[in-house]
Write a structure and sequence with these properties.
423 residues; Butyryl-CoA Dehydrogenase, subunit A, domain 3; Acyl-CoA dehydrogenase family protein; AcylCoA_DH/ox_N; AcylCoA_DH/ox_N_sf
Length: 423
């Protein structure tokens, strides 16, 4: 497998222009109105148009996690989430693809340094794919022969690299994993050209994310382009298995913020037909808007407060307490659910005017309904958080950042027998 890289870059030198967290956030905010203008076109295409991808690339969002040792800005989880939230105020699909596409540097933290530099030769390289073990990887000399079909490859239509979760086999038989797991779970990384993309993404929301199925058969992947979340090369907060999940709440929070701003602007000119009362003076409208602001603010502060506390604790080398670990998980789920509830309430407030396409609220509600179907917004994650607090068995241990196996500098994560769900 050969790794594509831009002309003029080598495996040992990465040329990343200086960008600060403040500059990336400012660029994301500046591009949001342009994404809003393109939202209908993005939805019609069922993937991000090439010029929209370039808009995102120009913000620096895809390089947010590139470490400083490679010349990158190395934004922390709070800063990453802020940038994703700003983009989501423009278009949910674009923000969703940015949130997933920037994971290249996070995955690189689980690879040997020379391989990581190859992965990040283009600091704006986009990575797509699903990490859950939906494929199989047969051990062969020097690597694996990989076969499988994966779902929900958001951003795969414009990516460079693709990841796929696999269970390892040897001589056709599953290799055992740590106690309580379904087997030896690894993640493989390969160029997008090594996969067949299937045009399966016909969805009611996040339609522009291009979240297609993809598959491969008997693909050779060298050992150095595979990793386990239990064995990071880096240390600190970036070494947590759930690092790719941290900025997810930025998408629902940004969509809900945009919806609230839209209805507040609408209220300045709207009059209740039955009573002749301006919306700005209508008790019901005032109450709905205030309640929505209250709910969204509480959800947002829970996300950013828990992320900051968790990040600082991990950077200091501390093991997370159960309450610290669970706080970010529950805040994440709550952000998805609260955002959907807020937009559904606003949709009801605007009533029949909200149903006509291209209604902003119609698209935002559909986008939120679809993103709330993501596995990380499901009851199994809430159950897992409760189980961890009570010493029980989490149904989705990975959502808590718990991956059985030795982790450098940290105690081995203990997950009971049914700590993982089979794919």
């Amino acid at each position: 497998m050969s790794a594509p890289r831009p002309t003029g870059l080598t495996d040992t030198a990465v040329d990343v222009p200086d960008l600060t967290a403040e500059e990336i956030l400012a660029r994301a905010r500046a591009v949001a109105p342009r994404l809003r203008e393109r939202a209908e076109d993005i939805e019609e295409h069922r993937q991000l148009p090439a010029d929209v991808v370039e808009l995102l690339r120009g913000t620096g969002v895809f390089r947010m996690a590139v470490p400083k040792e490679f010349g990158g800005p190395e934004l922390d989880a709070v800063q990453q989430t802020e940038a994703i939230e700003a983009l989501a105020a423009g278009d949910a699909s674009a923000a969703w693809c940015a949130m997933i596409g920037m994971d290249t540097a996070i995955y690189a933290g689980y690879l040997a340094e020379d391989t990581a530099r190859r992965l990040l030769a283009d600091p704006d390289a986009v990575t797509a794919g699903a990490i859950m073990p939906m494929g199989r990887a047969e051990r062969v000399p020097g690597g694996y022969r990989v076969s499988g079909q994966w779902h929900f490859g958001s951003g795969i239509t414009h990516c460079t690299w693709v990841v796929g979760g696999v269970l390892v086999t040897r001589d056709g038989a599953p290799e055992p994993g740590p106690p309580g797991t379904p087997g030896n779970w690894r993640v493989v990384i390969a160029p997008v050209t090594d996969f067949e993309l299937q045009d399966t993404w016909y969805a009611t929301g996040l339609a522009g994310s291009g979240s297609r199925d993809y598959r491969t058969q008997n693909l050779y992947v060298p050992e150095e382009f595979t990793f386990s979340f239990a064995a990071p090369r880096v240390t600190g907060a970036a070494a947590a298995p759930d690092a790719v999940l941290r900025n997810m709440p930025g998408v629902p929070l940004g969509v809900a913020r945009a919806a609230l701003d839209h209805v507040r602007h609408l209220a300045t000119t709207r009059i209740d037909r039955a009573t002749g009362t301006p919306w700005t003076e209508d008790y019901r409208v005032q109450t709905v808007i205030a309640q929505a602001e209250m709910d969204l603010a509480a959800a947002r502060y829970a996300v950013y407060g828990s992320l900051r506390e968790q990040w600082d604790s991990l950077e200091a080398g501390h093991e997370l307490s159960p309450d610290q670990r669970v706080a970010t998980v529950l805040a994440r789920v709550n952000a998805f659910r609260t955002a959907r509830s807020v937009v559904a309430t606003l949709f009801d407030l605007v009533a029949t005017a909200a149903v006509y396409r291209p209604s902003v609220l119609d698209r935002q509600l559909r986008d939120l309904n679809v993103m709330c179907q993501h596995v990380m917004a499901q009851d199994q994650v809430v159950q897992s958080a409760g189980a961890h607090l009570l010493g029980g068995a989490p149904r989705n241990a990975y959502s808590l950042g718990l991956v059985p196996g030795p982790r450098p500098g940290r105690p081995e994560a203990r997950v009971r027998r049914d700590g993982y769900e089979r794919p």
